[in-house]
Design goal:
This protein is about 45% helix and about 15% strand. The protein is α/β, with parallel strands linked by helices. It has two domains: about 110 residues, 3-Layer(aba) Sandwich (Rossmann fold); about 170 residues, NAD(P)-binding Rossmann-like Domain (Rossmann fold), CATH 3.40.50.720. Strand 11, helix 8 and strand 12 form a beta-alpha-beta unit. Helix 3 crosses helix 4.
């Protein structure tokens, strides 16, 4: 597929490629839609196999941010950044200051924050070059606990929908990915008495959750076939695919990872198998809510309370799914697209 065809496939407004060889910086910023407000989305630092893989990832992620903001009721558009390179590199100042200059060039059309492979310290470097950044020291900081809380509340909503009760005590949950968000998801679940089966590519992360929370560890590939009632993917995306689907014994899939469905048809297949799916950009919206709260001067408690409303949003989506006879991921898209269309018309009236 040609480059511009790829960008145009989902209606992206703008894609910026930025290269700063002296800083070791190669980045892509994608702005999907700004109907509801400035595009907001984190910066992912990852060792992509190719430039094309990085582009496809940033396009998918930025589109997801548009839908996430819309379905959550926030006045934000969708964007995302990726930096191509080794996320474990120690000397980071020049890389992230170069990224800050790339963000600054967009003059507020895009606001960034942390994501996979980046942290508060990195955003402080970005802030040296631009004001269009959130999640810096002294601001809302690490959004992971709020994201995790929203995921936890979303899992409870799924339990209520599936079993008539949101009590998770004794419920078995397979958690894939034990980074910042995954760890806190495990902590919330353990506090309610859920039984955890966990995996990660980092042995230290597994050891921490096993020791602190009494989780059962399994290998990365084993997680798809474990006997658990809920699967919570909290690592990278596309984990629901042709290879993993036949292995699933889960009744619910609800986790923090972005773009969990490798293709839209996999959401249809989950419904056919009777597996309740919490659309990823709905259940993992807590991080976006946290950043939006920072931009608008919310207290930490208000941001957490708003993230807790993901519970009600999911129940609403499940109702739409049943009423219209469509899979949950389609119901989520319909809700998001309706808000974008309605606000778009309202803005045209005013202008």
């Amino acid at each position: 597929m040609e480059l511009f065809d790829l960008i145009d496939m989902h209606g992206h407004e703008q894609v910026v490629f930025w290269n700063e060889p002296a800083a070791g910086y190669r980045g892509i910023i994608a702005i999907h839609n700004t109907t509801l407000g400035p595009a907001l989305g984190g910066t992912r630092f990852w060792n992509y196999a190719s430039d094309l893989e990085a582009l496809v990832d940033v396009l998918r992620l930025s589109r997801g941010m548009t839908y996430k903001a819309a379905v959550t009721g926030l006045n934000l558009g969708g964007g995302k950044s990726v930096i191509i390179g080794d996320p474990k590199v120690k000397r980071r100042e020049l890389i992230f200051r170069a990224h800050g200059r790339a963000v600054e060039s967009l003059k507020g059309r895009y606001i960034t924050a942390e994501d996979v492979g980046t942290g508060v310290e990195d955003m402080d470097f970005v802030h040296m070059e631009t004001e269009y950044v959130a999640g810096i020291a002294g601001g809302s900081g690490d959004p992971s606990p709020v994201t995790a809380y929203g995921v936890y509340r979303g899992i409870k909503a799924c339990a209520r929908e599936k079993w008539g009760s949101d009590d998770l005590s004794g419920v078995s949950v397979a958690v894939q990915g034990l980074g910042h968000v995954g760890y806190h998801v495990c902590r919330f679940l353990a506090e309610e008495g859920a039984r955890l089966v966990v995996t990660d590519i980092d042995e230290d992360r597994i050891e921490r959750v096993v020791e602190e929370l009494g989780a059962e560890p399994v290998g990365p590939e084993r997680i798809y076939s474990v006997e658990a009632q809920i699967f919570a993917p909290c690592a990278l995306g596309a984990v629901v695919n042709d290879q993993t689907l036949p292995q699933f014994k889960f009744e619910i899939i609800a986790g923090a990872a972005n773009n969990q469905l490798a293709e839209s048809r996999h959401g249809d297949e989950l419904q056919a198998k009777g597996i309740l799916y919490a659309p990823d950009y709905v259940i993992n919206a807590g991080g976006l809510i946290n950043v939006y709260g920072e931009l608008n001067g919310w207290t930490a408690e208000r941001a957490k309370r708003k993230a807790g409303e993901i519970y009600d949003t999911l129940l609403q989506l499940f109702e739409i799914s049943k009423e219209q006879g469509v899979p949950t991921h389609v119901a989520a898209d319909k809700l998001a697209e309706r808000r974008i269309e309605q606000v778009g018309k309202l803005q045209r009236t005013w202008l």
